[in-house]
Amino acid sequence: MKTTFKIALMCGVLASCGPVSMYYKPGASVSRLDTDTTNCQVAALKDAPVANEIRRSPPVYYPGPRICRPGGNCYYRPGYWDPGNIYTVDTNKPLRDKVTQQCMAARGYQQVNIQRCSEGVKQSAPAVQTTVMPNLTQSSCIIPYQSGQWQIVTPASGG
Q1: What is the pLDDT of residue 72?
Q2: What Rg do the C-alpha atoms of the chain give, in angstroms?
Q3: Is residue 152 part of a domain?
Q4: What is the pTM of this model?
Q5: Is residue 56 part of a domain?
Q6: 19, 20, 27: which is closest to 108 by C-alpha?
Q7: Closest CA to 134 of 29, 57, 43, 61
């Protein structure tokens, strides 16, 4: 249980360090982006509805250990079967994601990865959420806020 928690914590920490993937269209308002994203997701859900399948990972047999007592008297403890985990897979999710992407592309958006801003940039930038998508440069970065909003910052070159 502790290992699972540590893995989940590490994944959360790493996810907060990597780039942010988002739809982008220079000059588009963020409210328009939100509306277009929702409309495309709803359309994709109609075209590729959720199709959950219940699956089970394969069972694994763990043989019992060999126990030896002084004098060479050995025996085996019984082994046991781990029946495997039960999990759910939405088999239409990849198709639904593709349909959403095609819909957004038809509206002029492209999927981009924007690096997260360094602590120095976060400290120096005024905390104002982006309302209109700016032109991106190599030095553009993003500051995600806990509210779900974000700010795209393009630091001045040379600093």
Answers
A1: 83
A2: 25
A3: no
A4: 0.71
A5: yes
A6: 27
A7: 29
